[in-house]
Amino acid sequence: MASRAVVATYSIAACDLAAEQWGVAVQSKFLAVGSVVPWAEPGVGAIATQAWANPRYGPRGLVLLREGLSAQEVVAQLVDADDGRDERQVGVVDAEGRSASWTGSGCLDWAGGRTGRSYAAQGNILVGAATVDALADTFEARADLPLARRLLACLAAAQAAGGDSRGQQSASLLVVERDGGYGGLSDVAVDLRVDDHAAPIDELARIFEIHHRLFGKTPREEWLPVDAALAAEIGERLARLGYEGELADSLDRWAGVENLEERLDGAEEIDPVVLDALRGATA
Q: Which domain holds residue 272?
C-alpha cells in the first residue's frame, strides 16, 4: 500500500437545488488534491473520488448521472466494475439531490461517510468520525449560506473537529452552475485550488474572498445612484490614479485593469464593491 498514491482526505459533494448549483469541497495531506477529487456538472451532479482514488470515477460517474441514474445507482455501478473497490472512496450527489457514499473495506482508518439530502460527506485516514460529522452537521445547519460559502464552512468545521490525521497540505472548491461562470459564458462558477500550503483551508477562504470581490454579484437594488456629488468624487479619485476623461470611460478603463469589469454597468449606478475598491486604491 505504501507505494500507491493515496488521497487521504475529507470531502463533501453537495448541491443547492434552489440555486441550481452543484459542487465539491475537499482538503487533504496530499499535493494538489483539487486535480484528482472534485467533479461536477450543472443539472447533472457532483462527485468526489478519493482514498486510493480512481480518477475515472469522475467522468464515468457524470456520464451515468447524465443518463438519469440515481446517486446510489451510480456508486453501485462504479464500484461493481472496479477490482480496486475495497480501497476506494466516493461520494455522489445527483440532479435531484439524492446522495450516496462508498467506503471500501480496505480504506485506512479512520474511514467512513455520511449522507443526507443534497450532500455526501466522506473521509479516510482521519483523526475520527467527528470530522465527517462536522462536514455533515455544518452543511445541514448552514442552509442560509450560498453553496460556495456553505462548503467552505464545512471544511473549516471538519478541520476544527480533527481533520486528516496526517495534517494539511492542499484544498479545493468547485461550484458549477449553468451559465454561472465568467461573463455568463462558462458553467464553472468557482474553481479554486490551494495545491501546497501549511493552512490550505484558510488560504482557500482568502482566495475565495478575492474571487467574490472580482466576480460576485451585488443585488441591483443595493447599487448606489451616482448623483453629482458621487460622480465628482469618483472622477477625482480616478484622475488621481491617472484615469481622466468622460466618467463612464475612465471608470471602465480603471475597472478593466483591476479586473472589476464584471461589476460595472455604465456610470449611472455603481456597485458598492467597486466604489470601496476605488476608495481603497486612493486612500
A: 220-281
For the record, the C-alpha cell of 30 comes out as 496530499
Same domain, 236 and 163: no
> What average pLDDT score do residues 143-150 get?
98
Backbone torsion region of residue 259, taken as left when φ is above 0, otherwise alpha when ψ lies between -120 and 50, otherwise beta: left
Instruction: Decide: 128 and 158 in contact? Cβ < 8 Å.
Output: no
Q: Which residues contact 98 (CB under 8 A, 6 or more apart)?
A: 70, 71, 72
| pLDDT band for position 3 (cuts 50, 70, 90) | very low
Per the structure, the count of domains in the chain is 2
pLDDT tens figures, 200-247: 999 999 999 999 999 998 999 999 999 999 999 999 999 999 999 999
- The CATH code of the domain that includes 155 is 3.60.20.10
